[in-house]
Amino acid sequence: MTVLRMNQIRLRPGEGTELLGSRIARMLKEAPSEIVDVRIVKESIDARNKKDVRFVYTADFRVKNEKRILKKAEKLRLNVKPSPEDFYRPPRSGYEGTGNYEGLRPVVIGSGPCGMFAGLLLAEAGLKPLILEKGKKVEERSADVERFWKSGELDPRSNVQFGEGGAGTFSDGKLTTGINDPRIAKVNEEFVEAGASETIQYRHMPHIGTDVLRKVVRNIREKIESLGGSYLFGTEVTGLRTEKGRLTGLELEKGEILDCRHAVLAIGNSARDTFEMLYENGIEMTPKPFSAGVRIEHPQELINFSQYGETNDSEGRLSAAAYKLSCHCRETGRGVYTFCMCPGGYVIGAASEKEGEVTNGMSRFAREGENANSALLVSVSPEDCFRETGLEHPLAGMEFQRMLERAAFELGGGDYSAPVETVGHFLGRPDTEASVNPTYRPGVKWTEIRKCLPSFITDAMTEALPQLARKLRGFDLDGAVLTAVETRSSSPVRITRDEEMQSVSLKGLYPCGEGAGYAGGIMSSAVDGLKAAEEIIRDLSDGSSSDQVHDEEGLAARS
Ligand SMILES: Cc1cc2nc3c(=O)[nH]c(=O)nc-3n(C[C@H](O)[C@H](O)[C@H](O)COP(=O)(O)OP(=O)(O)OC[C@H]3O[C@@H](n4cnc5c(N)ncnc54)[C@H](O)[C@@H]3O)c2cc1C
Question: Which of 492, 101, 95, 52 is nearest to 308 (CA)?
Fold first, then answer.
């Protein structure tokens, strides 16, 4: 039996996915028994007609007579094709499952999505990776984060940015990405095996949810360990040892030196000390444009109504609605967009530095919170950062982020409370009352957020709010709440790497993921981590692999 793939299969919100087989059969004018083993490949929502919102599916299914069905589909003008076999096949090291690898262990610095997936692939290749993480295990880290949200007591080593699972652990766990890569299927499969819902494999806007993510992160760690990999928590890399342009070791904060010739540098976008250390060690990096702004919070009901209208959803299949908006502001010349939207979610304190206040968003798998939130961001160029900080330096962007975070900390009252303001108040209507209770913890302070943001950002926000409301009714609702400041949406630098993903300044160092400027989110960071691991596997393969690569000294790099 052959597998075929069909798209544009439409169901009403009240119709369950068990009807897909009979719907495909009806579209093909076949008996339902002809269509078997239906598997959803993709699910999206068509909400263009608010009176008739539909789920739209792409599905794989088996048929007995492929040729006959394909011919019929063509006649009926239906899009049916043999299902593509887009399997991910990583390179082989030759050590898989043997326990024989005795060379220097590859090291992964950072256990976020990038480091986790690099570590997993290296472990599957039998190369016994060692994962160094400056923060704590997810269980202990969760307690530190909860304490911060309750009391404002920040641990700069264990927080929303640092610790097992990286920055994405306390998030919505959205897996939406702009990249198209066969490795995405591998990442999804691993997440599902580790406890995520199977729906992430086909939903248009898949998400894991922060409650599930913590379990997923722990289970992936246990899998890596069962394959011969190991973790060192509370272990920060503070320096590099090099010889003739090649990495030979890593300095750890307690003074130890770890011999190392292959290190995946997966440090995330908040690793400011490490960026400085790399810069001082002559690792080439360039300033990169990024964005900064605030979180905006609306009643979720308003977003649902704007997206779904009065669609009858008696079965409750339509989840809390999401949006993604952008515009170009003519007067200020800035791009403004929403980012990391969390339906039914919470605005959270995401600080990692003392005396710096930062917001972000998260939601649980059920997305059952009363509010919707999203970052509202304005594009920031390296030139903006040079001007605002007075530093013409690759790390000026990092200093600019720090400046905004410190200003927000002061304005919030100096206890990690966030400055908040209603949209109406921000736009000059001082009597506006809030339509939502701000969810940010440990606390909020009602004030004028302009006082902690430069005018090029607030001017662009002022221009953008009504423009964005033309795309999503109610977006500029007077009572919506703005929470400052959102600064960590992407890295302010890019660490330059060559085609083999190694630093152009240091062989053996593989800068990757979000911090190095090559990814923007959980999925693209995980995929970048897999790619770096593939390069290392090629370099360390035992020679049985056809695409073995030799290092620059001409030695098979088994060190
Ligand atoms: C609250 C929040 C919500 C988010 N929501 C989403 C979402 O829903 N969907 C999405 O796609 N993205 C989301 N993101 C962004 C996403 O988390 C990041 O894109 C992603 O985690 C980047 O992965 P990474 O592995 O490159 O880096 P990170 O996840 O930042 O991990 C880097 C790790 O390296 C460690 N580290 C740093 N320096 C050192 C050192 N010198 N030595 C040892 N260890 C070190 C850090 O402690 C950290 O654990 C969110 C981010 C936050 C903060």
Answer: 52
